[in-house]
């Protein structure tokens, strides 16, 4: 194989003052309040459905809502899950 020609006037492309140490870039991340609301909505939706299954006959407004309790509970869960897509 032929060897590459090396000339004496070749200058290194990097200067000695350039650091090659990787630096962590601060992207901000997700604020704490966002995570609290996200997990809170998911837990509230789960708790709503569990309470509906276990104690709906003892809670008057849940009896009046009837099957809308499923919509409320799953809506809270879905909103929390959709918020998780914005979590960094």
Automatic annotation (TrEMBL):
- Which species does the entry assign this protein to? Corynebacterium doosanense CAU 212 = DSM 45436
Q: Give the protein's biological function.
A: Involved in cell division.
Family (UniProt): Belongs to the CrgA family.
A Pfam family that the UniProt record links to this protein: CrgA
Q: This protein's superkingdom?
A: Bacteria
What's in the keyword line of the UniProt record?
Cell cycle, Cell division, Cell membrane, Membrane, Transmembrane, Transmembrane helix
Amino-acid biosynthesis recorded as keyword: no
Keyword set includes Phosphoprotein: no
Entry's Gene Ontology BP terms: cell division
Q: What residues form the membrane-spanning segments?
A: 36-56, 68-87
In terms of InterPro entries, this protein maps to: CrgA
The way this protein sits in the membrane is described as: Multi-pass membrane protein
Q: What is this protein called?
A: Cell division protein CrgA
